[in-house]
Amino acid sequence: MKKSLLVIGWFALAIIAPFALAAAVPQGSLLDGVKPGPDGKIDLVTIFPHEDDELNAAGTFMKLKKEDPRVRTHIVCFTLGELSSAKETLNLTPEFQGKIRTKELEAAATVIGVDSLIQLQYHDQGLPKVPPEELRNKVLEVIEKTGAEVVITYGPDGMTGHMDHMTLSKAVAEAFPKSAAQKLYYAAMPKEYCPLVKAINKTGCTAATMCVDIKAEMKLKKLAWYEHATQKFFSGPIHSPDFEFLREDECFNLAASKP
Ligand SMILES: [Zn+2]
User: Fold this and answer.
1) Domain spans of the chain?
2) Ligand 1 centroid to 106 CA: how many Å?
3) Which of 82, 180, 195, 251 has the highest count of CB atoms within 10 angstroms of its CB?
């Protein structure tokens, strides 16, 4: 599919998504069935390739930290994000864009209120070229470093079909059984959207098994999104500060669970 059609498809989905009801998906919590670690804390980590992917769980992270003092949250970002289309709009070199996006993620992480942010130095669109064993080991390393009980990444389809999303999803799914983490969740779509998602990305769709109501966190989530200004205002065909697409819930698929 032409890139422009792909972009238009995602924008169509973005416009429809906030108005559709995910009534069929039960509300839940990422903490369901999770036992605290030896320190009495429950650590959750998002493991994604790009600056702004963490927004998939930003509202949930804010909500959980408010509700449960045992919760600690962590963001791991694997690449520098230097190849986003904003670099053409802004006439940036990939290196400079990478530097800006790293700072944008730091600002977003401050808004989300995470306990740690780990920025790795892999290249945007470069994860498929990394030896799979190296990637798995790196995933294991960050799960251990954060002490995560709960791990969140994209599903095998990568949600948008981005190769970095799909490659990292595979590495996380393979590393998870070897880690001490208890639950693996994929960022997911209510299944009503799956026909449209599949038509756009051609790689499939991860359907949600539960959603988290983040109405109370929407304003701060929006602020976190605004911190990614290169992506919010200078990437894609529509650069409108008033363009809304954030849903009032975040949905996940329980991909693996240990007893
Ligand atoms: Zn991404």
Assistant:
1) 3-257
2) 16
3) 251
What is the CA(48)–ligand 1 centre distance, in A? Answer: 7
Q: How far is the CA of 165 from the centre of ligand 1 (A)?
A: 6
Residues with CB under 5 A from ligand 1 (ion): 50, 53
Q: What is the Å distance from ligand 1's center to 162 Cα? A: 7
DSSP letters, the chain, are --HHHHHHHHHHHHHHGGGS--TTSPB--TTTTPPP-TTS-EEEEEEESSTTGGGGGHHHHHHHHHH-TTEEEEEEEEE--TTSTHHHHHT--HHHHHHHHHHHHHHHHHHHT-SEEEEEEEPTT-GGGS-HHHHHHHHHHHHHHHT-SEEEEE-TTHHHH-HHHHHHHHHHHHHGGGSS--EEEEE-B-GGGHHHHHHHHSS---B-SEEEE-GGGHHHHHHHHHH-HHHHHHSSS---TT-----SEEEEEEEEE--
- The reply to whether the predicted model has a pTM over 0.85 is yes
Q: How far is the CA of 38 from the centre of ligand 1 (A)?
A: 33
Each residue's pLDDT expressed in tens, for the chain with a length of 259 residues: 445 545 555 555 554 555 555 556 889 999 999 999 999 999 999 999 999 999 999 999 999 999 999 999 999 999 999 999 999 999 999 999 999 999 999 999 999 999 999 999 999 999 999 999 999 999 999 999 999 999 999 999 999 999 999 999 999 999 999 999 999 999 999 999 999 999 999 999 999 999 999 999 999 999 999 999 999 889 876 655 554 567 899 999 999 999 8
Distance 52 CA to ligand 1 centre (A): 7
